[in-house]
Design a protein that fits this description.
alpha/beta, six-stranded parallel β-sheet, globular
């Protein structure tokens, strides 16, 4: 959480890793407590059971000042995992109806495995997944008209028939689902910045960049799984830092180019002429910081790169993680609020003892 709080291009947080040093029946409460404590960014949370969802909402209400304050300023949304697009498990429905009744946002995401629980074709797998999501949309609006609802921004998943692994970074499902969700005019929970690699290597960097690029171009809204490896079974803080750098690149790429008299600088071009130089001009001094400069990628010459240690991208990212964790201090919760949040965790722990 501390790292995600510090990274400038990470706009919301999730629990990237699952704690094993706390009682497992209430691990989701401990996750939410950590997120509320160590970041002020919006949160996407997951709970294993319906009771956990109720507790987590109470914790968020304690932070913002009560149920109505949370409804008006929903700092957290629930990621609801649904069995499949054609079968909706009881706890997923309980969470959905509870949150809709309180006017709180939820992402309702049926799991589909093309070739197993849905057709293997991207279109067929998407049809099953999005049909399930639309069931959730209808139920939420029947419970409370206007309840905030987030569609899944993916759903054409497949099972790799050679390995029986569900790939995260495959190209076939990209862009298709965001187009569909945009046609509905609804927000979406998208998936990118991930890799099927097991380590932070060339494959991890390539797949993170490709998936983030396609989701940005397709207009994904809430994009999660940055830093995930091994098809979602592992993750890396160094990879998360690399994804943050990729996002900085993409933000400059999609923001467009401003064309006006100042940026064209035709008078300056005419003044300096073909044999002059622009290095010491006031225009260069005024505007050079507007261009993108990497904080992690290397642009030095070979000798300069060696002089700084000759590190790979993965090594530089690992050093960045250490530096951030050593110096970044998230904004703390007020003592009484932190105590109220922890009371919910300990109460749940006592109930499951």
């Amino acid at each position: 959480m501390i790292l995600a709080d510090a990274l400038p291009h990470i706009d919301f947080v999730m629990c990237m890793f699952l704690p094993v040093d706390v009682p497992q029946p209430v691990a989701d409460r401990y996750q939410m407590e950590a997120m509320l404590t160590y970041t002020s960014k919006p949160i996407m949370y997951v709970t294993t059971e319906f009771s956990g969802c109720v507790d987590v909402v109470q914790m968020a209400e304690a932070v913002v000042g009560g149920p109505e304050a949370l409804r008006q300023n929903p700092l957290a949304a629930c990621y609801i995992n649904v069995t499949t697009g054609l079968r909706h498990n009881e706890e997923a429905l309980q969470k959905l109806l509870y949150l809709a009744g309180k006017g709180l946002p939820a992402a309702y995401v049926p799991s589909t495995q093309g070739g197993v629980t849905a057709p293997v074709t991207p279109a067929g797998a998407m049809a099953v997944a999005q049909a399930g999501a639309l069931v959730g949309l209808v139920l939420s609006q029947l419970k409370r008209e206007g309840a905030p609802f987030i569609m899944p921004g993916w759903g054409g998943n497949m099972l790799d028939m050679r390995t029986t692994v569900q790939p995260y970074a495959d190209p076939d499902k990209r862009a298709m689902v965001p187009d569909f969700v945009h046609s509905l005019g609804l927000p979406m929970f998208a998936l990118a910045g991930c890799s099927d690699s097991k380590v932070v290597d060339e494959q991890a960097g390539i797949e993170a960049a490709l998936t983030l690029m396609t989701d940005v171009l397709a207009g994904g809204n809430i994009v999660h799984d940055l830093g995930y490896l091994e098809s979602g079974l592992a993750g890396s803080l160094a990879q998360l830092v690399i994804c943050d750098e990729i996002l900085g690149w993409l933000e400059h790429f999609v923001r467009g180019v401003e064309i006006d008299d100042e940026t064209l600088a035709l008078d300056l071009i005419d003044e300096i002429g073909p044999d002059g130089q622009f290095l010491n001009s006031d225009h260069t001094l005024k505007h050079f910081r507007e261009r993108w400069y990497p904080g992690l990628f290397d642009r030095n010459n070979y000798d300069g790169w060696l002089a700084k240690g000759g590190q790979t991208l993965a090594q530089r990212a690992a050093e960045r993680v250490k530096s951030i964790l050593a110096r970044h201090q998230p904004e703390p919760l007020p003592e009484d609020v932190a105590s109220a949040v922890h009371v919910v965790v300990k109460r749940a722990e006592a109930q499951h003892a």
